[in-house]
Specification:
Distance between the termini: 26 Å
Domain Pirin N-terminal: 38-139
CATH class: Mainly Beta
CATH superfamily: Jelly Rolls
Number of helices: 1
Radius of gyration: 19 Å
Protein name: Pirin family protein
Oligomer: single chain
Helix content: under 10%
Order of helices and strands: EEEEEEEEEEEEEEEEEEEEEEEEEEEH
Region (Disordered): 287-325
CATH topology: Jelly Rolls
Pfam families: Pirin (PF02678), Pirin_C (PF05726)
Number of domains: 1
Domain Pirin C-terminal: 191-287
Largest sheet: 7 strands, antiparallel
Strand order of the largest sheet: 2-23-20-25-18-15-14
Number of strands: 27
Strand content: over 45%
Length: 325
């Protein structure tokens, strides 16, 4: 998925050493995406830039798309990150410049590693379900891996961990000995948890990780705090278990990872370390959009329409400015 805003802000990120449990509730900001899709953006935010290597979190829907085109995001580029597409309802057709052509359904992991450069599109198929609901997540690649060759993985069979009233699907990383087949480049975890009505249980956590919870439906009580849909509860680190209660049936994502020590510059759909890298990536993409040599990203074959042009760079230099605004 793309950040399609016409005035993307520069984001410089560096994870602080959490080291202790906290409880910070973050409300989303609404952002337009492609044609007719509006999303709740939870990361990056004013109060929280990253959770482990997770550096971008959008939650969209549930949207009634029975009489609409649904998701329509034209080809766009990425560098220095992995995209994690997770559907709760509906279908999305993924195409990329590697030649991948995959229809993604609920419960299936679409994991794209941009590495040194990739382009992709995401669209609802012409014949699609009446409801579209999901999350789009980015994982920042550590410096040692950000120049890897681009790749795409699709996993329809993911491990599941169950407990009293809880069912947890492991998107990435490992929980209670169950490991996702998705390839990661830093210690992290992503879990989709369904809590039945009346559930009272707990989920094991890695105490060295920092964690956050994104509620996608219902209103679970997480560590004694009710977390409404579309909000993100940052939990810090130092926790071995996550207490969960649910009066109505609830569903939420648990995202976590080892605090990310490197500073990042995020702009539009790029994750880099310097403003010069961002500028070069933008120039390369614009040359490809104009019909020049596809030496970094490449065309997305099978998509009918024009790719997204990169927005203008901000008037001030893109350079690290620290975590705080």
């Amino acid at each position: 998925m793309s950040d399609t805003t016409t005035d993307p802000r520069v984001t410089v990120c560096a994870a602080e050493s959490a080291g202790r449990p906290v409880s910070e509730l973050h409300e989303p900001r609404w952002v337009g995406l492609g044609e007719g899709t509006e999303v709740r953006r939870l990361l990056p935010s004013l109060g929280r830039r990253m959770v482990g290597a997770w550096c971008f979190v959008d939650h969209y829907g549930p949207d009634d798309v029975a009489a609409a085109a649904g998701m329509q995001v034209a080809p766009h580029p990425h560098i220095g990150l992995q995209t994690v597409s997770w559907l709760l309802a509906g279908e999305v057709h993924h195409r990329d410049s590697l030649g991948s052509d995959q229809l993604v359904r609920p419960g299936e992991l679409a994991l794209m590693t941009a590495g040194r450069g990739i382009a992709h599109s995401e669209t609802s198929p012409a014949a699609h379900s009446p409801v579209l609901h999901g999350a789009q997540l980015w994982v920042a690649l550590p410096d040692a891996a950000r120049g890897v060759a681009p790749a795409f993985e699709h996993h329809a069979d993911l491990p599941v961990v169950t407990g009293p009233g809880l069912r947890a699907t492991v998107l990435l990383g490992e929980v209670a000995g169950a490991r996702s087949p998705g390839r990661v480049h830093s210690p992290l975890v992503g879990v989709d948890v369904v809590a039945v009505a009346g559930a009272a249980g707990s989920l094991p956590l890695e105490p060295d990780f920092e964690h956050a919870v994104l509620t996608v439906s219902g209103a679970p009580e997480i560590d004694g705090r009710v977390v409404g849909p579309g909000t993100l509860l940052y939990l810090g680190s130092g926790r071995r278990t996550l207490p969960v209660r649910a009066e109505p049936e609830s569903r939420f994502l648990v995202l976590g990872g080892e605090p990310f020590a490197e500073k990042l510059v995020m702009w539009w759909n790029f994750v880099a370390r310097t403003g010069a890298e961002i500028t070069e990536a933008r120039e390369r993409w614009q040359r490809e959009v104009a019909g020049g040599p596809a030496d970094t990203f490449g065309p997305v074959r099978g998509y009918e329409g024009d790719p997204l042009a990169a927005p203008a760079l901000p008037p001030t230099p893109l350079k690290p400015r620290g975590r705080e605004r």
